[in-house]
Write a structure and sequence with these properties.
By secondary structure, this protein is α/β, with parallel strands linked by helices. The chain has ten helices and seven strands. It holds the Pfam family adh_short.
């Protein structure tokens, strides 16, 4: 039985920025459909239900079209329109490109790019049909710079950042808004999962995911096109826009090369 509250769909909601985005939505009175590839999505749901919200969960690999189809089926079974879609699922991969396992490379591309745009294609069409809805992408300032020793991840985020701006423009004559949240290094499981704990960026102080999520949520509610969280990241992104790519790649190497944190 569908509830009467507005509905938010959040991917990658078991931890990190996605968890904090879902938490904010719960506090703001949304019912939730949340998905992640980890079993602890159920623990996250238990926390969100304390606000009295209806929370449906799906543990699925959103790198696969089947995983996204299962999530969309859950949305359709709920019977309500999606008011907010937060396309947050994503992960990274450290080390040199030629030293990485290609199956892991493919999974990063399929999670960050293919699964993300497939879900947005499905739910975005529904939003356009009723001329209402909000979409938030979790991009990254990593998309502004060539990511030496994190090359595939940064390239996927460059795609997401660019795609979000393009989709926003295509929908400018509708009431569907598209916002791209572009955080910097954030204190989540990201660097551990990417095997980057021995790097300079892996060991550096990072932003609070709750702060990042709040900045993104507020920007989405205002209908902003993009938001970079944190003044240091704003400065870094501004510098990146006027710095040659070769220099950016060298700077990124210092942050992400294995052993740089020793």
């Amino acid at each position: 039985m569908a509830g009467t509250n507005k509905l938010a769909v959040i991917t990658g909601a078991s931890a990190g920025i996605g968890f904090e985005l879902a938490k904010i939505c719960a506090e703001e009175g949304y019912d939730l459909i949340i998905a992640a590839d980890q079993a602890k999505i159920e623990d996250a749901a238990d926390q969100f239900r304390r606000s009295g919200n209806d929370v449906k969960t799906l543990q699925a690999d959103l790198a696969t079209l089947d995983g996204v189809d299962r999530l969309y089926d859950l949305v359709k079974a709920d019977g309500r329109p999606v008011d907010v879609l937060m396309a947050n699922a994503g992960h990274g991969l450290g080390h040199g490109f030629l030293d990485q396992d290609f199956n892991e490379i493919q999974h990063v591309v399929d999670t960050n790019v293919t699964g993300t745009i497939y879900l947005v294609h499905k739910i975005g069409r529904d939003m356009r049909s009723r001329n209402e809805g909000k979409i938030l992408f979790t991009g990254s300032i990593a998309g502004f710079m060539p990511g030496s020793f994190q090359a595939v991840y940064n390239a996927t985020k460059a795609f997401v950042d660019s795609f979000a701006f393009a989709l926003r423009n295509e929908l400018e004559d509708t009431e569907v808004t598209v916002t791209c949240l572009m955080p910097g290094a954030t204190d989540t499981e990201f660097f551990e999962r990417a095997d980057m704990m021995d790097t300079s960026v892996g060991q550096a102080k990072k932003d609070d995911p709750a702060m990042v999520a709040r900045v993104g949520y507020d920007a989405m509610m205002r209908g902003d096109g993009d938001i970079v969280s944190g003044w240091k990241n704003k400065l870094q992104s501004a510098i990146a826009n006027v710095t040659p790519a070769g220099i950016l790649a060298s700077q990124h190497r210092k942050m992400a090369e294995p052993g740089s944190g020793n």
